[in-house]
Amino acid sequence: MWFAGPARRAPLAGRPAALRLGFTLKPGMRVGLFGGSFNPAHDGHAHVAETARRRLSLDRVIWLVSPQNPLKSSRETAPLAERMAGARRMARGRTMIVTDAETRLDSVYTIDTLRALKARHPGVRFVWIMGADSLATFHRWRGWTQILREVPVAVVSRPWISLKSRLSPAARRFARFRRSSLNAGSLPAAAPPAWVFLRGPLNFQSSTQLRARMRG
Fold first, then answer.
1. pLDDT at 123
2. Which of 21-25, 87-91, 98-102, 210-214 is least confident?
3. Beta strands across the sheet bearing 125-131
4. What pLDDT is recorded for position 168?
5. Alpha-carbon separation of residue 40 from 5, 54, 189, 195, 209 (angstroms)
6. Measuring CA to CA, which residue among 143, 66, 151 is closest to residue 104?
């Protein structure tokens, strides 16, 4: 099994392209960061984002559309503009923001994006949001242990994968830092590492199924 190594510590917030990320945040705001390829975006993504927004009492949820997931083939990834447009259709309401910030920051890895955004927005209480399917493979992400020590993490249940995700290497290694979902609203103010698993009604759409349907 391959485990991702440590990430670089050089902040990216000083890059000229990082000066205009398409959103404004104020100190004290509770902000969820929801990253992914969104290839394509679907109702399942909207369900994860909305569940986290509601259960964590977030002021904003920022959809970070990645330029290219390093763990996935670029041949199967639609152009960024197409994926951005799809995410905007799914991200409903003024609290949902879709951005290509990772492209502007020239950031490939989540850990670098987190550090850049924290440097750019001191005082903002960031939370990383992911579906349970991402937690199952989280140990393959570059700097995954550093991510969990950088910001609190909210994991939202997804069909067929919830049990596997709760037994994943990341869940086991950080088991003692897991918080009760009954106190999910306190997560944005928690000192990392801290994470919560949010159960709720399941949405069965997936990007893999949608791509297969389009090819068929």
1. 97
2. 210-214
3. 96-99, 60-65, 30-36, 125-131, 153-156, 195-198, 178-179
4. 95
5. 29, 24, 32, 27, 10
6. 66
Mean pLDDT of 126-145: 95
Give the relative orientation of helices 80-90 and 43-56 as an angle to the nearest 10 degrees.
Answer: 60
Q: Which token pair is 207?
A: 């990007």
Residue 213 pLDDT grade (very low, low, confident, very high; cuts 50, 70, 90): very low
- Short-list 25, 51, 194, 32, CA closest to 127: 32
Q: How far is CA 20 from CA 95, 116, 126, in A?
A: 19, 13, 19
Q: Which residues fall within 8 angstroms of residue 162, CB to CB, at 6 or more apart? A: 132, 199
Query: What region, left, alpha or beta, does residue 168 occupy, with left being phi > 0 and alpha being psi -120 to 50 degrees?
Result: beta
- The CA-based angle 207-71-156, given to 5 degrees, is 50
